[in-house]
Amino acid sequence: MSAPVRSDRIERPLAVMRIALSAAVIAAAVVPLYLLAKQALTPELETFAWPPAWLPRDLTLRNFAAVFAVGELRGAIVRSLCVGAISAAGATVLGAMLAYAMARGGAAQRVGFAAVSGVRLLPMIAVAIPAGIMLASLGLYDTPGALGLAVIHCAIAIPTAALTLYAAFAAVPREIEEAAWLDGASPVRVFFAIDLPIVRGALSAAFVLCFILSWDEFGFALLLQQTNRTLPPLLYYYTVFGNVGPASALALLMMIPAVCVVIALGPAMRTAMVTGSSR
Amino acid sequence: MNERSRYLKGAFVAIPSLFMLAMLVVPALGGLGASFNHRGPSLENYSALVHDPMFWRAALDNLILPIASLALELAAGLGLALMLTARGKRSAVVEVAAILPFAIPEIVILTIARYLLMPRGYVNGALEAFGMHGAAWLSPRGSLAMLSVAVVDAWHVTPIVMLMLIAGLQTIPQELYEAARLDGAGTLATFRHVTLPMLAPAIVGATVLRGIDALRIFSTVLVLTGAEAVPVLSTYAYGQWTDAQAPRVAMAAAMVLAMVVTIFALAGTLAVRRWASQPGASQ
Fold first, then answer.
1. Are A155 and B181 in contact (CB < 8 Å)?
2. pTM of the predicted model, to two decimals?
3. What is the ipTM of this complex?
4. What mean pLDDT do residues B121-130 have?
């Protein structure tokens, strides 16, 4: 509480509460992750012990070896990386176009915001089932390359990219653009030669956020890639239908990109994650 | 601003919008059409919904579950936001720890939650170690499953609520706190008469944004309890599509959900506007 506090009667319990809450927050973040890491690094039999073992007895890398040895798992990692990269690249390009037009005001701004917020209201299930039928008619349903899923992920990531880039384009001084126009540069040229270089930091932020959106996305992936799975649905099947060891190892590997971003890139990225948080 | 740049702007709005339209809205409209089709135009699919008790359970749970998880998120998010903005008490470790659950992919959170909450899982293990009885946290027959789902969902998304409320707290002018102090207001009075009213727009905003997501809840329920234990509209539709092989009934259920989300979002937008325009609001 930012208010200067006077009475000790309230201050002391608040201080105790604050310490207890801090401890709870750290525990809620660390203990589950520790247990997951423990499961990933111990033999599967140990995981089924009762009462559950809180400390690892035998450490092993067998679960990770299994993840990379089983073709299905290896394939899912490669597929998730490809879908993430393709969809994030597409969404960053399309989102940059939309954000630029929105940042320059007028009708474009209203249409852009309406499109971006409207699309974010669609429930996954209402889109995924008919989208599956549409992709099937295009020959893109559940293909090994998962191009259909990448296209859908690209579409759902455009609002995230556009909202991330909007502030960056809005901050580009209009005078620079106008000077370039007066010098005879075409609008397209101004966009590529002036605006894009200025917002390149935001472009990479948008790409990273869109990649993570795709990497984490479960619903569309489950419905659109029923046999050629990406990581989230595969992890779901491993978790629900057994194979604790590889599932834990896979889960641990899946966390790497997102956790790196949050720890390494700091507060700016966290704000951006809020903007783009809607699924 | 010349004529040609207007063309560029038009094209830059049109291309991404048309792409989203073609990939997301057109399929959804196709689904809407299919939901009114049963060997010709008919209300058959909706009548199948109305006569399925499971649909009504799903609709009811789709109401209770978002309310429960929103309440948990707002309470925890507010507590964390207040704690993290307290003057002179900032801790980078607590801050990163508070945000971490949101950085973890949802499916990983759910995987961990399953291992924690399963009958012979860590939570029951810890309870028994302290001499208490374990519980059937995810059992389809108990009433606990709903609570478990709400808690796990809140665990994952509380960081977003927290960040939104921190942003709201930072817009409250310090002078108000000074004035409250000069008037002799204590911590609780200051919280009630300064912080809470000034934070109301942020709370309403967070409720609307998070509510839209909470209504569409799918993976948490599916992974933790399966499609049947705590049915919600998304998992009901999923079940109709995969298990019951009734795609048109599935689409009808999905359209009901889409309508609920749209109504909530429109009402929420109006509420946000009204709140933001009230005197005393921070912006």
1. no
2. 0.90
3. 0.90
4. 89
